[in-house]
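Thread title: Can someone regenerate the structure for this chain?

I was given the following input by a collaborator and told the matching structure tokens would be attached. They weren't. Posting the sequence so someone can regenerate them.
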Amino acid sequence: LFQRFNFWASLAAMEVDSSSGTGPRMELEADLQELDRMLAQAKRENVRKELRRVQDKLNAELAKVKASEQTSAAAAAAQAPPAASPPPARPPATVPVPTGPWSEISTFALDLGGYDKPHVTVDVRMKGVEALPAEKVTCDFTESSFDLKVMDLDGKNHRMIKTNLEKDINPADSSVKVKKNHVIVTLAKVKGQYGYDSWMDLCAKGRRKPAASATKEANPQDSIMDMMKDLYEDGDDNMKKIIGEAMYKAKRGEKYEPKDDLKMPGLDDPLEE
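Best answer:
Regenerated them for you:
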């Protein structure tokens, strides 16, 4: 009798919890599991009928709880602000290189150095140039030229381009440097067999004469002939006549004797008063 009283008390308690509508989902699921165990043990038909009635009621309540949970989750998702997308990546900054118009740089100081000096220096005076960003002052070098650009100085683009340099330079060792009110272009000379070339001017007057390679074993006879050719090309009509006659006789193996007025005085010759 006592066991039957406990059974009906437990069943009544399940109904009270379900009718309140406040039981959590886990409690309802636990009650249903307990009902399953009771149904497995019940023998009397009236008891089993009552258990199935309570079971149906709890299943309906559990379905309501699940539906309510799904509705709440959907509403929360709808109200949540969308995840912020990362800002698009900015393209790398590029320095615009103007194509003109250019203001020609025509005034500069020049240090050609000597035969034992490794550099030719071009000094361009430009007030306030040190305030420009580094990328605004550039210089491109080749073996026979350099191209200096100074951009956005006082609202102008300045350029100094020199081609047909008198001698070859080493582009890798040449450089440009900005100082206060000055732009210094340093041209690295090419070292020949007997030292650095001696420059007479920044640019060649006529055909450029490439520097001789330091590793090349030069033939003295070839060097003299090259020098004679250069003198012939750069000389006046009288010089061309003299050199042409000397070269012609040299090829024939004949000795060339210049006229008396063209001979160099010997050490023992008396000097004219």
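Strands lie at 103-104, 109-111, 119-125, 137-141, 146-153, 156-162, 175-179, 182-188, 191-192, 195-196.
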